[in-house]
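Feature request disguised as a bug: please show the residue count (215) next to Nicotinamidase in the output. Example input:
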Amino acid sequence: MKPLEDVFLVVDVQNDFMPGGALAVAHGDEVVPVINRVARAFSHVVLTQDWHPRTHVSFAANHAARQPFDTTTLPYGEQVLWPTHCVQDTEGAALHRDLHVPHARLVIRKGHHEQVDSYSAFLEADRTTPTGLAGYLRDVGAKRVWAAGLATDYCVAWSALDARALGFEVSMIEDACRAIDLNGSLERAWQEMQAAGIARVQSEDVLKEANRETT
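Example output, currently without the count:
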């Protein structure tokens, strides 16, 4: 991987998305060793964290007579209502203890604005408020984003699609992600990513490419 051009984006590998967590992604813990292995091929790694206030608008508990996974309409559009998760400064919001990426250069915390959700690492759900990641990547000369983490069909897909729309080349590392798959959301996400020109790759493909570039 080219140190300045290739960035490994690791999305929301947090306790609340792990088995037993508040918003568990099935087999979410399986991505951790894959991400650790892939991360060693990159000199430039960026992490994200969901980082919500307890009063966040996306939490079902903050809407009368609503249940998790109901939908509602907010000023910026349709919103899935989630179980309370990744609350700021709680153990659930912490990165998984076995995630080992000591050379990560940046952590983007998203979803901290009370009245708007933020799946993407680049733009909040109102689709206008930036997180600052796009400007950072342009400043450092990044050209390609390799995405992994949780969940494939929400935060990882939204991040990948936004990165592509912003002009970056994007690859989704499929076996370094796991999905929620709510009402067909996984298939829809893959269709949207394919239509956007996002490559669907496996971790072994990434490692083989890294090996070619170093030999």
